[in-house]
Amino acid sequence: MDSAAIEKRIRDSFARQAFMATVGARMATVRAGHVEIELPYAAGNTQQHGFIHGGLVASIADSACGYAALTTMPEDAAVLTAEFKINLMSPATGELLRAVGRVVRPGRRLVICSGDVFAIDKGEEKHVALITATMAVVRMSGDLRD
Fold this sequence. Notes:
Layout: H1 3-15, H2 18-23, E1 26-31, E2 34-40, H3 54-70, E3 77-88, E4 96-105, E5 110-121, E6 124-139
Antiparallel strand pairs: 1-2, 2-4, 3-6, 4-5, 5-6
């Protein structure tokens, strides 16, 4: 697939993610092996101390890695998260979170990814999380689609 087709595939798939829509996340950047997802601040996404909930930080990081992996797949394959490890290094506060997912090693069965989450407030960027993730490659059939 060419880069325009890859970007369309990723954006179309992301548009079908009800959870990402519910929390207000948006696809920002798509290129081969690299995806960025942004999440504007919303009071409904915070925990009891006013920080963006760590589970949501992990979710956007996981999605960024998964979509970065999907950019490396042929049309008849998709990816599902097999595992991830996240370091929440600092409370996620600010106007916007940006999750950056990158492919470290593409493979036929597994795709290894890494990523970062940055909190942006008044133009200042703070590194708040680091993720490593393994995506399992699955062949699409039946109801399974991107």
